[in-house]
Task: inverse folding
């Protein structure tokens, strides 16, 4: 049987609780970085003559409290390596975490009395035997209190620090007795690979071959679609504006030649960047060249700085929504039979002419955005799919709103595919996950990297995607932050396999 792996959210205060010799320091050093561990013994040595200088205890704990306050204020994962037996001190530490809206986690060391005594005796400066006896007795008194004090109580097993969205911070006493079995088959879910960055290890001249390799591996891994952003500059949420950013439809045409099965689209096409009739021609050409695998993602556009850089007008938001609705009406006419005239709110054509026609009878149109009043109303009225943002509870609420719009528009909601955009960093083991975080984080803190990439183990992502599927998601567009690194796509194939 595989050894159990504990999950700790990246925004946590972790308090180690156990007597001398129980293995707290060794465990902490194995699973956390040195700068994340605040040790009362080390602080006692810092302000006194050594780790066993009991006269320096008061000063050491005052310093510990100050360090905790400053680290938690910055949202930094912090491990307190102390006995953890003082009730008022534990309450104060948990209170600091609560003030910063951080999780409070206890790790309880149930090491046998015999082993604790033997380990302590083997130390260069052992704790007096009578003191250890008192600590062992105190451990029994503290154990029943922990569930009420902490969000999560763990045993010192192998540990992974994961994004808060993946860490179920629930007291053990509140686990529902009828909770679904982990072995229960999850609902079917499709996956799209979202390529938002082309800054991979290696030289920029390798982008083409690397892109083709990624696409081929994604198809083999079981991804159902590949999507690129429609931007001319890298967006600030992903990187710096001088990082490589490929033009979307040229890239999709290249991907069409490199693949045979996956569907291809821009997530999403900014409606202000192109003449709508020209966009229809571009997407139709992609559909023809890919043998009917094109999808058309549309959005109202938002990146004002990009418009300024390229000399495009950035219309007010109401005008952009009118332009978006015109496109939703005109594009199917351009792709359909005949050549009707079109007069919209902002766009008009004398004839909706586009030859060759797309291979598909109807190229699916996806609208991106979670706007509850306007965006989802347009989806219900015109689109074949929507792309939403958020965790399962948020998605469930948005799906319910979409269904209400469908009812008002006399539209069957089953006709509309619900997709969700997810940032993902997935690994098979805690060591592999930590290594990839260190490799990718640059100047970001580990905590920032974990949260921005939704970092976690394979099983964590399976559970999260299962929840998204149950909330109404049909396909998840996955941005793999390590997509350019060896093994990243293959690791995620394990997630895809759980939903087949």
Result:
């Amino acid at each position: 049987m595989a050894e159990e792996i504990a999950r700790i959210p990246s925004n946590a205060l972790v308090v180690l609780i156990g007597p001398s010799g129980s293995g707290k320091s060794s465990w902490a050093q194995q699973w956390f970085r040195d700068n994340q561990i605040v040790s009362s013994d080390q602080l006692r040595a810092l302000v006194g003559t050594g780790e066993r200088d009991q006269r320096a205890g008061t000063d050491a704990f005052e310093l510990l409290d100050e360090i905790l306050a400053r680290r938690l204020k910055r949202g930094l994962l912090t491990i307190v390596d102390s006995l953890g037996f003082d009730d008022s001190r534990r309450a104060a530490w948990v209170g600091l975490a609560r003030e910063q809206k951080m999780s409070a986690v206890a790790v309880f060391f149930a090491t046998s009395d015999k082993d604790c005594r033997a380990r302590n005796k083997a130390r260069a400066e052992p704790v007096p035997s009578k003191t250890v006896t008192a600590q062992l007795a105190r451990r029994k008194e503290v154990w029943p209190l922990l569930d009420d004090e902490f969000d999560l109580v763990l045993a010192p097993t192998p540990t992974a620090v994961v994004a808060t969205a993946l860490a179920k911070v629930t007291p053990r006493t509140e686990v529902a007795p009828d909770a679904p079995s982990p072995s229960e088959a999850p609902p079917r879910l499709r996956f799209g690979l979202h390529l938002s960055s082309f800054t991979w290890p290696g030289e920029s001249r390798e982008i083409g071959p690397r892109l083709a390799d990624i696409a081929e591996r994604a198809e083999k891994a079981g991804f159902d679609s590949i999507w690129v952003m429609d931007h001319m500059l890298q967006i600030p949420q992903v990187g710096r504006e001088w990082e490589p950013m490929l033009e979307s439809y040229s890239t999709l045409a290249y991907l069409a030649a490199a693949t045979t099965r996956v569907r291809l689209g821009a997530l999403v096409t900014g409606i202000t960047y192109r003449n709508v009739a020209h966009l229809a021609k571009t997407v139709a050409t992609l559909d023809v060249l890919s043998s009917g695998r094109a999808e058309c993602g549309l959005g109202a556009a938002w990146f004002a700085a990009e418009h300024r850089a390229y000399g495009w007008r950035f219309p007010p938001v109401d005008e952009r929504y009118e332009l978006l609705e015109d496109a939703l009406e005109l594009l199917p006419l351009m792709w359909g039979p005949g050549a009707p005239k079109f007069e919209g709110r902002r766009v008009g054509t004398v004839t909706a002419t586009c030859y060759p026609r797309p291979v598909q009878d109807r190229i699916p149109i996806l609208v991106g955005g979670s706007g509850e009043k306007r965006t989802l109303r347009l989806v219900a009225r015109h689109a074949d799919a929507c792309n939403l943002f958020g965790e399962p509870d948020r998605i469930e609420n948005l799906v319910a709103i979409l269904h209400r719009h469908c009812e008002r528009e006399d539209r069957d909601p089953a006709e509309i595919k619900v997709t969700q955009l997810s940032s993902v960093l997935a690994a098979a083991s805690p060591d592999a996950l930590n290594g990839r975080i260190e490799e990718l984080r640059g100047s970001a803190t580990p905590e920032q990297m974990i949260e921005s990439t939704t970092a976690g183990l394979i099983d964590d992502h399976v559970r999260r995607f299962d929840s998204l599927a149950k909330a109404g998601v049909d396909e998840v567009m996955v941005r793999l932050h390590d997509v350019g690194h060896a093994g990243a796509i293959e690791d995620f194939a394990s997630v895809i396999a759980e939903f087949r």
In short: The longest helix spans residues 317-335.
